């Protein structure tokens, strides 16, 4: 009779299975299983262990078990005796020597070896933890039963039991049990899609439904030019003049920014602490606003830099804007030096004005943004920059 291969997992409601005991979790969120153990769950697991004489583990779980069970004492001693005596197989391409008695390391041919082990005489084979191994066993159709203990907790981070991108695996629920702690165990066996169920073709969207969805999703998307600015050396300046004078200076900064943005029919979306995010209906207006702010704020001895991009944005209920165009403008700002206005090729191609000049900065990869982006330093032709900026009503000699 073929031995059963049982996968037994402790899983949070959000699918996390990492560090359920007191082993290390990246964010220190361990122990969420141990706090909800009870006599009921202990009996269920104990009944399973009565049929198990072999463990199959991934390297990470194996190392955790091998560090704990050989020296376990106290209440864990009876179970430790079973754990140490049972046969262990660990799947690893890097573990050269077993660290625990009764252990055999399986290498790259592990699927064939596991299939052969299942044909040998013996009790059930238990897999615990070992998420990568579980996904591999699923792929090779080697699992006979899944015992998923679902805990009433959301961990929020950590490794998930089932990885993204795996195939669809229909399962059949054969048993479920709720424990007094709120833990629920769900026992599944591999299954097939139920007969008589609708086929996927019956759920295929029509072209009209797809167009309706796209129209609904795009209702708040508009084409806009996004301008980011920030103050050069703001932290050093604040430290040199003190908090009170810095707040007064920032208030004056905000007044000049509001007037200049309004002059060019833009909208200040929000302050970024030492700069602003604003949107305009044309790239030319955003450019001229940036030039005006550069000169206007210089009167306060504030040096700024700016980044500009034109693209689609999603307008939020609170007036904020989101979307890749916002991220690209922010990345362009990061490439700008003191007093410089950096724009994307899109802005250069769309902006109009004989006094506008663009100096290539080359193609760069913008962090988090796919592809290469051509950036340009935008300037006003010599002899016109100061005169143009000084026409702004926000520029005042002090």
Question: How many extended strands?
Answer: 16
Question: What is the name of the CATH architecture of the largest domain?
Answer: 3-Layer(aba) Sandwich
Structural class: alpha/beta
Strand content: 25-35%
Query: Considering the protein shown, what is the CATH homologous superfamily of the largest domain?
Result: Dihydrofolate Reductase, subunit A
Instruction: Quote the CATH topology of the largest domain.
Output: Dihydrofolate Reductase, subunit A
Q: How many domains comprise the coordinates?
A: 2
Task: Describe what this molecule looks like in 3D.
This protein has 12 helices and 16 strands. It has 2 domains: 186 residues, Dihydrofolate Reductase, subunit A (3-Layer(aba) Sandwich), CATH 3.40.430.10; 170 residues, 2-Layer Sandwich (Alpha-Beta Plaits), CATH 3.30.70. It is α/β, with parallel strands linked by helices and 398 residues long. α7 crosses α8 and α8 packs antiparallel against α9. The C terminus is likely disordered. The chain is 32% helix and 28% strand. The strands form 2 sheets. An 8-stranded mixed beta sheet has the order 4-3-2-5-1-6-8-7, with helices on both faces. Strands 9, 10, 11, 12, 13, 14, 15 and 16 form an 8-stranded mixed beta sheet that branches. It is elongated.
How would the blueprint of this fold be written?
Blueprint: E1 5-12, H1 39-49, E2 52-58, H2 59-68, H3 77-85, E3 87-91, E4 103-106, H4 110-119, E5 124-128, H5 131-139, E6 145-151, E7 171-178, E8 184-190, H6 207-217, E9 221-231, H7 234-241, H8 243-263, E10 267-271, E11 275-280, H9 283-298, E12 304-315, E13 321-322, H10 324-334, E14 341-344, H11 345-350, E15 356-365, E16 372-380, H12 385-390
């Amino acid at each position: 009779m073929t031995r059963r291969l049982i996968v037994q997992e402790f899983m949070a409601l959000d699918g996390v299975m990492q560090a359920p005991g007191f082993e290390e979790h990246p964010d220190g969120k361990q122990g969420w299983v141990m706090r909800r153990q009870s006599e009921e769950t202990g009996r269920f697991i104990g009944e399973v262990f009565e049929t198990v004489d072999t463990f199959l583990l991934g390297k990470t779980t194996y190392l955790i078990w091998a560090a704990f069970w050989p020296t376990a004492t106290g209440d864990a001693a009876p179970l430790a005796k079973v754990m140490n005596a049972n046969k262990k197989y660990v799947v690893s391409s890097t573990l050269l020597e077993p660290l625990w008695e009764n252990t055999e390391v399986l290498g790259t041919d592990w699927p064939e070896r596991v299939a052969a082990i299942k044909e040998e005489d013996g009790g059930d084979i238990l897999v615990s933890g070992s998420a990568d191994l579980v996904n591999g066993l699923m792929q090779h159709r080697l699992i006979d039963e899944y015992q998923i203990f679902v805990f009433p907790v959301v961990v929020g981070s950590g490794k998930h039991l089932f990885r993204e991108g795996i195939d669809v695996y229909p399962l059949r629920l054969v048993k479920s049990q709720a424990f007094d702690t709120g833990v629920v165990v769900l026992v599944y066996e591999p299954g097939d899609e139920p007969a008589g169920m609708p086929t996927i073709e019956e759920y295929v969207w029509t072209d009209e439904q797809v167009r309706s969805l796209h129209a609904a999703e795009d209702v708040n998307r508009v084409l806009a030019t996004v301008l980011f600015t920030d103050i050069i050396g703001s932290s050093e300046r604040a430290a040199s003049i003190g908090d009170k004078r810095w707040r007064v200076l920032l208030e004056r900064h905000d007044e000049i920014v509001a007037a200049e943005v309004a002059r060019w029919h833009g909208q200040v979306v929000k302050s970024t602490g030492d700069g602003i995010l604003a949107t305009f209906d044309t790239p030319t207006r955003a450019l001229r606003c940036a030039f005006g702010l550069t000169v206007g704020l210089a009167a306060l001895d504030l040096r700024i830099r700016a980044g500009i991009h034109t693209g689609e944005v999603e307008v939020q209920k609170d007036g904020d804007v989101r979307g890749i165009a916002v991220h690209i403008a922010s990345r362009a700002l990061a490439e700008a030096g003191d007093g410089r206005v950096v724009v994307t090729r899109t802005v250069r191609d769309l902006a109009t004005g004989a006094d506008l000049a663009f100096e290539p900065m080359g193609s760069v990869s913008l962090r988090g943004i796919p592809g290469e982006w051509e950036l340009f330093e935008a300037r006003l032709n010599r002899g016109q920059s100061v005169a143009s900026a000084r026409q702004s009503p926000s520029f005042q000699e002090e």
